[in-house]
């Protein structure tokens, strides 16, 4: 990877001017691609239920917007979320594998995964062993992902690389290749617990890994930038990256997700602004 | 590493694929960008422009005006004075008078103030200049906005800084100005080339007569307005518009001390012949057929960006364009596949749309030349790939194109197309890459793509090219000298080296 050129390309695509109907269509798509996330020690069933409702009906005044793709919670809240989302089509994603550090024995991590799946998770967001990655123990990284995939059964697997800890685009690229080869359905940038989280250049590097895998095998891997995507404008920039790197086929929640919490209301505010012509106060949007 | 691949997951449905058929990416309109045009409403283009001579706007003695059009729509933008030999004579006299009475006698620190003032005015009028540049020349607004205009300002800033430090530029030798510089510039970077020429000349204490290209005179005339508003002494900068005859009158004028020309090799040779035996100094910046060399160990995705930038930037109307792609044979198919997909994402159309990547061809004549060479490429058996993008009905357009299966002997691999047309050649070893890269009458620029630093240096030392870019392409900076080997010309522009074209050294 050439870092200068990667950053230049990502910055060039940030200059795309997305206006009017393109902006509305892009933002609607962004809502449908969102994994609405809460991953805090202070999470409660009430908080998770509120978030589930927000995912089902993001804008109470406009039923045509949403629903979001998924909500993303700790394993302890999968059952609550599952019940709250009954019949909505919104998926339940659970982090697992001793999220966020992953610094536990493999047996514990796999048990974490199996329990989350038993609770009813449709999707598992795992973390790779960054220590093994940086130590050059790629076999260990690969095997853990492959075993996690097995433990997932029918659940989709998103492989979190935690790019903010990997140090260079070269390592991000290699981790992407391992995550894909070991059976990940999605590769994901970050836990949201480490800065920097998702950035456009790191996302571009991962999209390029996905593209090369598609060229070689015809298999489509999904992408999820997570953490750090807070504004509608940033979300549109990510969609531009996807559109101009992987093309039309990836512009779907099946293959692209945003992991975010604050992003949704900014997107809704922009959508309302496009509809009414003026900005509304942030108090006009439900904060869940 | 255990390589047990888990079975394809349900979230990644694979379409039915014919055996042996490559998976293809689709760059369609699943989510299309709405038009985002830069509005030309607040830009005023006068219906007619006179000549700028001796600090005043004057009707041409020829009495004639010619149209300048928008190549994207063929609509007339304005009409511009055609300077004849008598007009050129007036301009040279005005420049001589300004040189003798004020400019050559002024302290460098005072000259610097004027040049700084021009630089700042370019920044203040950046939006207007960018819009007019795109309308008159056809280049995408994102390029005129992000490249041409900022770099033009940067050249004035840079050279303003030199004006009072010239005594330190030549290792103790004292520089004196030459006198009147006649400067003839091309249509591909109209404002930027004017800046490249005028800024160092003024910094060194010369006065100038500038002749812009006949298809793109407007931004040079707007620059003359800026010079006027910056209150430069009358005659320090003069602008005479016209075509080849005007340029010939300027090059042939006995009152000119130096000619600086950027343009085609053919005209450059004619000027050099005309100047033989005269006292005039000459610098030429002419054509190119640059090799962009991609080794197998290069960061391929980034190299593809560099290939695209190298040849499709400004519709390929770039003398240093990377028009010959030399790719190591082992990665040829991969690079071509990625290039094809990347070309499919290029957006061709309205130069004023902020999302346009490829604008209009500058003129009908240039479009005809491109078509002719592409036909020759097909006739010689090259395999042509052109973007399937829709071309607008009016105006001059050519889709981004590349040829594979081309050999060194093909016309399309030897002649400068000066359009969005790339030829792809292969090599097996660094020696072969070097031999093929240097196997041209040109020598303006080259690009090298590899992850090995040592290989870049090995190549850069041996490439006969004035500029060699490593893992990048088409990067410009006022402090970096630019110019050619062989039939790409002589003399350098930019940097300390560029100053020497505008001074006489004592001792």
Describe this structure in words.
- The complex is a heterodimer of chains A (288) and B (507).
- Chain A is α/β, with parallel strands linked by helices and 288 residues long.
- Helices cover 47% and strands 11% of the residues of chain A.
- Chain A has one domain (3-32, 94-252, 263-280): Aldolase class I (TIM Barrel, Alpha-Beta Barrel), CATH 3.20.20.
- Chain A has an eight-stranded parallel sheet with strand order 7-6-5-4-3-2-1-8.
- In chain A, β1, α3 and β2 form a beta-alpha-beta unit.
- The N and C termini of chain A lie far apart (40 Å).
- The relative contact order of chain A is 0.15.
- Chain B folds into two domains: 40-286 and 485-505, Aldehyde Dehydrogenase, Chain A, domain 1, CATH 3.40.605.10; 291-470, 3-Layer(aba) Sandwich (Aldehyde Dehydrogenase, Chain A, domain 2).
- Chain B contains 15 helices and 20 strands.
- Chain B has helices at residues 85-103, 108-124, 126-137, 141-162, 190-203, 218-229, 244-252, 265-275, 300-312, 332-344, 364-379, 411-414, 430-438, 453-462, 495-499; strands at residues 48-49, 51-53, 56-58, 65-70, 75-81, 175-177, 180-184, 207-211, 237-239, 258-262, 281-285, 291-294, 324-328, 383-386, 401-404, 421-427, 445-449, 467-470, 489-490, 503-505.
- A seven-stranded mixed sheet of chain B has the order 14-15-16-13-12-17-18, sandwiched between helices.
- In chain B, α3 crosses α4 (141-162), α4 packs parallel to α5 and α9 (300-312) packs across α10 (332-344).
- Residues 1-16 of chain B have low confidence and may be disordered.
- At the A-B interface, α1, α2, α7, α9 and α10 of A face α9 and α10 of B.
């Amino acid at each position: 990877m050439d870092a200068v050129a990667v950053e230049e390309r990502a910055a060039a695509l940030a200059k795309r001017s997305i206006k009017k109907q393109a902006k509305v269509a892009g933002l609607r798509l962004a809502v449908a691609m969102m994994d609405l996330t809460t991953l805090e020690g202070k999470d409660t069933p009430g908080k998770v239920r509120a978030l589930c409702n927000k995912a089902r009906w993001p804008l109470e005044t406009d039923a045509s917007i949403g629903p979001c793709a998924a909500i993303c919670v700790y394993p302890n809240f999968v059952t609550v979320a599952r019940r709250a989302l009954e019949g909505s089509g919104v998926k339940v994603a659970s982090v697992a594998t001793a999220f966020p550090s992953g610094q536990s024995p493999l047996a514990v991590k796999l048990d974490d995964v199996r329990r989350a799946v038993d609770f009813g998770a449709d999707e598992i967001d795992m973390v790779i062993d960054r220590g093994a990655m940086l130590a050059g123990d790629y076999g260990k990284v690969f095997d853990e992902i492959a075993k996690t995939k097995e433990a997932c059964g029918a659940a989709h697997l998103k492989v979190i690389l935690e790019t903010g800890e990997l140090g260079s685009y070269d390592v991000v690229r290699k981790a992407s290749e391992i995550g894909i080869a070991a059976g990940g359905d999605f590769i994901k940038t970050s836990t949201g617990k480490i800065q920097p989280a998702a950035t456009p250049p790191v996302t571009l590097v991962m999209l390029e890994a996905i593209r090369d895998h598609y060229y070689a095998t015809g298999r489509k891997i999904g992408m999820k930038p997570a953490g750090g995507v807070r504004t509608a404008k940033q979300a549109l920039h990510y969609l531009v990256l996807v559109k101009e790197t992987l093309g039309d086929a990836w512009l779907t929640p099946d293959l692209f997700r945003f992991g975010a919490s604050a992003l949704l209301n900014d997107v809704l505010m922009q959508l309302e602004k496009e509809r009414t012509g003026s900005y509304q106060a942030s108090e006009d949007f439900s904060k869940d | 590493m255990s390589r047990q691949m888990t079975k394809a997951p349900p979230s990644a449905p694979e379409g039915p694929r014919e055996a042996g058929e490559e998976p293809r990416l689709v760059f369609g309109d699943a989510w299309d960008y709405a038009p985002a045009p830069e509005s030309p409403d607040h830009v005023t283009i006068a219906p007619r422009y006179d000549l700028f001579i001796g600090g005043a706007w004057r009707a041409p003695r020829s009495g004639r005006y010619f149209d300048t059009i928008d190549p994207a729509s063929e609509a007339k933008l304005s009409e511009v004075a055609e300077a004849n030999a008598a007009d050129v004579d007036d301009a040279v006299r005005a420049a001589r008078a300004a040189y003798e009475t004020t400019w050559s006698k002024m302290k460098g620190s005072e000259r610097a103030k004027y040049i700084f003032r021009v630089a700042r005015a370019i920044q203040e009028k950046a939006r207007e200049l960018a819009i007019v540049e795109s309308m008159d020349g056809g280049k995408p607004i994102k390029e005129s906005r992000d490249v041409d205009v900022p770099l033009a300002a940067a050249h004035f800033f840079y050279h303003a800084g030199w004006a009072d430090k010239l005594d330190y530029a030549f290792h103790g030798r004292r520089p004196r100005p030459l006198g009147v510089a006649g400067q003839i510039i091309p249509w591909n970077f109209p404002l930027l080339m004017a800046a490249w020429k005028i800024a160092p000349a003024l910094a060194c204490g010369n006065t100038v007569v500038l002749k812009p290209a006949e298809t793109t005179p407007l931004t040079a005339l707007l620059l003359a307005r800026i010079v006027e508003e910056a209150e430069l002494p009358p005659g320090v900068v003069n602008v005479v518009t016209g075509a080849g005859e005007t340029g010939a009158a300027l090059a042939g004028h006995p009152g000119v001390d130096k000619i600086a020309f950027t343009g085609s090799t053919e005209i450059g040779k004619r000027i050099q012949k005309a100047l033989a035996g005269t006292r005039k100094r000459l610098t030429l910046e002419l054509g190119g057929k640059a090799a962009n060399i991609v080794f197998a160990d290069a960061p391929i995705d980034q190299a593809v960006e560099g290939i695209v930038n190298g040849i499709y930037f400004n519709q390929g109307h770039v003398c240093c364009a990377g028009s010959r792609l030399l790719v190591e044979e082992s990665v040829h198919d991969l690079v071509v596949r990625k290039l094809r997909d990347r070309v499919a994402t290029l957006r061709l159309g309205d130069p004023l749309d902020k999302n346009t990547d490829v604008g209009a061809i500058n003129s009908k004549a240039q479009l005809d030349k491109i078509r002719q060479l592409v036909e020759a490429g097909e006739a010689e058996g090259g395999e042509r790939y052109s973007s399937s993008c829709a071309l607008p009905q009016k105006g001059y357009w050519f889709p981004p194109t590349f040829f594979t299966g081309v050999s060194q002997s093909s016309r399309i691999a030897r002649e400068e197309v000066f359009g969005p047309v790339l030829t792809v050649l292969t090599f097996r070893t660094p020696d072969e890459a070097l031999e093929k890269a240097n196997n041209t009458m040109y020598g303006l620029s080259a690009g090298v793509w590899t992850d090995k630093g040592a290989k870049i240096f090995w190549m850069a030392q041996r490439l006969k090219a004035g500029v060699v870019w490593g893992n990048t392409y088409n990067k410009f900076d006022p402090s970096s000298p630019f110019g050619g080997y062989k039939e790409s010309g002589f003399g350098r522009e930019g940097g300390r080296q560029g100053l020497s074209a505008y001074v006489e050294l004592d001792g």
